[in-house]
Design goal:
CATH class of the largest domain: Alpha Beta
Number of helices: 14
Oligomer: single chain
Shape: globular
Number of strands: 15
Length: 373
């Protein structure tokens, strides 16, 4: 089967949706299908062989973050040409309500379309106001997938209809084994964070405040931070007495990201909202890292209600510091959580998730026999 995947966000900027599409594409290819992805991307950015650039993206505020999207006549022309030349059996668009390529693909395509909803915006005036314009594109979608119950609820509330619930996947084999970064985790206790440092909802400010307590009480403890953002700005927000114990890596490669998960005694996800799944949790679980995460509904579900990771009161640095301290003091609990996380994450392994996606493809194709899992 020939599948066209549409990514609305710039390929050269790390993000959960881009990683989801990348891993789905590679899982489908491994299962014997032909896959092409179209995405916004800088022309000089090195792209995998299955990715086609739709041109430069523009940064715009969207869904509580800043997204790099592509929209307009040039993008529409490239999408139209890609669809025509691709001779696809099916299109799979992601976040079709975003003003980007997925919406354009829905408008121009005349083949079966599956859409995946990733975001979980409970109240959206933009969606409500844009509904008449969106309707002409969205009514062409034959099947819907939501990566979480929160994302499914967003679809039902704002657009009507329903979706098959298929969670994000994680390539477990990619994260299971890696050497720690040199000198890590060390003897005094190491905490890890991975995410966009300049995005408030990722919760780094909560973690930095919690580390003021942890660092003061545990002189050997350190904090390892990786992700896009201004490292100088983050360093300026760290209490001067603790700055030499906070290591800021900035944006890292995929291989270094895996090492980060294996370099800490406790991995922290202090996100404050806007998360429909928690792919960073699934990656850390695949690496076997003991996890402390905010008690968002999405995180609670991924961590099995706290059985596969410690939960703390969202936005409360004192509760976060206490949770980190408990795990530092209890190596047996860390080992238990590591084992529980490694077992729970098997439900999200990409070969399983890809087969579930193929079942949705089969349901919308006029000749279901062409889908082989």
């Amino acid at each position: 089967m020939r599948v066209g995947l549409v990514c609305p966000y710039s390929w050269d900027v790390p993000g959960g949706v881009q990683e989801h599409i990348r891993d789905l594409a590679e899982a489908l290819i491994d299962l014997g299908h032909e896959v092409s992805v179209i995405s916004p991307a800088d022309e000089d950015h090195a792209l995998p062989g299955y990715v086609v650039s739709a041109g430069h993206a523009i940064a715009v505020p969207y869904n509580g973050s800043v997204a790099r999207l592509a929209f307009g006549p040039l993008s529409a022309s490239r999408v139209r040409r890609w669809v025509k030349e691709g001779n696809f059996d099916l299109l799979h668009v992601h976040e079709p309500t975003a003003p980007s390529l997925s919406l354009l693909a829905c408008w121009v395509a005349d083949i079966p379309i599956v859409a995946t909803v990733h975001g979980a915006t409970l109240r959206s005036r933009v969606l409500h106001a844009a509904e008449p314009m969106l309707r002409s594109a969205l009514e062409k979608i034959n099947g819907w997938i939501a990566v979480s119950e929160a994302a499914r609820s967003t679809l039902v509330r704002h657009l009507g209809g329903d979706a098959v619930l298929i969670p994000n996947g994680v390539a477990i084999s990619r994260y299971e084994k890696a050497e720690p970064l040199p000198g890590w985790p060390g003897e005094g206790g190491a905490i890890g964070f991975l995410g966009r440092m300049d995005e408030p909802r990722k919760g780094l400010s909560v973690l930095l405040r919690a580390f003021e307590t942890v660092g003061a009480n545990r002189p050997g403890s350190r904090l390892l931070i990786a992700g896009p953002g201004d490292v100088v700005d983050v360093a300026s927000r760290v209490t001067p007495a603790l700055r030499d114990r906070v290591v800021l890596l900035g944006q890292v490669t995929e291989s270094v990201k895996v090492q980060v998960y294996h370099s800490v005694d406790v991995f922290c996800a202090p996100n404050t909202g806007g998360e429909s799944f928690g792919i960073v949790l699934a990656e850390a679980m695949a690496a076997g890292a003991p996890i402390v995460a905010s008690d968002l509904d999405a995180f609670r579900r991924v961590l099995r209600g706290g059985k596969a990771g410690e939960l703390f009161d969202n936005g409360n640095p004192d509760d976060l510091a206490a949770a980190i301290g408990r795990l530092f003091d209890d190596p047996q609990k860390r080992a238990f959580l590591s084992s529980a996380a490694s077992a729970a994450v098997r439900d999200y392994d990409w070969p399983k998730i890809a087969r579930d996606v193929l079942k949705v493809y089969a349901a919308v194709l006029p000749c279901a026999g062409q889908v082989n899992a």
